[in-house]
Amino acid sequence: MTKTGFVVANLFRKKTRTILTILSVIMAFLLFGLLQSLNSIFSSGADFIGATRLVTQARVSFTQPLPLSMVPKLETVPGVARVAYSQWFGGVWQENTQVFTFAVDPQRYHDVYAEWVMPEEQWKAFANTRTAMVAGKLVADKYGWKVGQKIPLSSNIYPQKNGSKSWAFDLVGIYDGSDENWKKQTNAVFINHDYFDEANQFGKGRANFYFLKLASGADAAAVTRTVDGMFENSPDETKTQTEKDFNLSFVKQIGDIGLIVRWILFAVFFTLLLVVGNTMAQSVRERVPELAVLKTLGFSDGSVLGFVLAEAVALCLVGGVVGLALATLLGAMVEKGTGGQFQLNVNGLIWAIGIVTILAMSMAVGLLPALRARRLKIVDALAGR
Questions:
Q1: Range of 189's domain?
Q2: pLDDT score recorded for residue 294
Q3: 90 and 33: one domain?
Q4: Looking at the whole model, is its pTM more than 0.85?
Q5: 40 and 67, same structural domain?
Q6: Same domain as 226, residue 131
Q7: Are 227 and 66 in contact (CB under 8 A)?
Q8: Nearest to 88 by CA among 108, 66, 107, 115
Q9: Inside any domain, residue 250
Q10: CA 274 – CA 308 distance, rounded (Å)
């Protein structure tokens, strides 16, 4: 039997215990890969490469609305082809079902977001009907909505002038995505901003978000600097970012993502060290007489130490590599499913950190049992002492 075969045979003496330990390592490194990738997304700087749209919001928070008088100013910025805007409505369907609802200017939104596909007559009805609403296909299918229905929605933010938070809209269209990635994002509802602005009790002539469609060849970073500089030191200071960074900023509202990730990984790997360490300690304890026999047959103390360390490395390496491979695969699936808006990329740097972590953990869980095997005295071991 080769030395490799000997290490593998010893690992699988207790098949159930070894398999469960490997599964634990796989899950730990699966989480490690995904969470490290998530952390790198939120810790990275602004990404203007390939940007075709920018989003402008209030500098303090996107919950603070900005005046619509900004629209003509934004359209004068070199590189901006068209500007659309939206206001968060806070829609609630039936008793307590949240619906992503935004008040938009129909024509402007249609011009800026060509990815939303809907018959032209429905776009016209949306623009020309005061109480119009269009729903994404996923939302309409989920709730069984049909074009022509009167849809009652409540707002958890904006009451009407009579104080009621109950609104009613005419569903004039159902939009879909231009490709498979955009089809998966048709989970929002749009209402006519003019009607909303006229009927709501407060906050006239304002919007939360301005979407800037860039002209072909425009420098997104330069446009960003120009826009934010235009409103600097004014009552309505702005923060402009790419659409991708804007989407990620919503998740950042829950807190310090990096700190959360670090604590989760600390808990995971602390538990994993206990599990794998216990497995290695039990394995060596059960084989004390066999290790003494190896020394009797002429294997040196260093060779016995190497066998035990090799078992620890093999145990951690198999589980770690499989876990990182699964994280890479799942990350690619998430990126594809979100149309590239959420790039959960388990890159080479994360793999390098993962391999170093695997080796460090192998030493941590294998060194003490290996040193015990190295110091083993043949007489005491064979005598059961």
A1: 60-236
A2: 73
A3: no
A4: no
A5: no
A6: yes
A7: no
A8: 66
A9: no
A10: 17
d(CA 329, CA 180): 19
Query: Which of 203, 236, 269 is the last residue before a domain boundary?
Result: 236
Euclidean distance between CA atoms 372 and 284, whole angstroms? 9
- Residue where a domain stops, chosen among 202, 236, 270: 236
Q: Give the CA distances from residue 115 to residues 110, 179, 183, 185, in Å, rounded to whole numbers and listed in that order.
A: 9, 8, 9, 10
Structure tokens at 243: 């659409």
Paired tokens of 66: 């900005």
Q: Per residue in 235-274, pLDDT tens? A: 999 999 988 777 666 555 555 566 777 788 888 888 888 8
pLDDT over threshold 80, residue 94? yes
* Tens of pLDDT, residues 369-380: 888 778 777 766
Distance between CA atoms of residues 229 and 81, nearest Å: 19
Count other C-beta atoms under 10 Å from residue 172's C-beta. Answer: 25
- The count of domains in the chain is 2
Answer yes or no: do 108 and 140 share one domain.
Answer: yes
- Parallel, antiparallel, or unpaired: how do β-strands 188-192 and 97-104 relate? parallel
CB 167 within 8 A of CB 155: yes
Indicate the pLDDT class of residue 201, thresholds 50, 70 and 90: confident
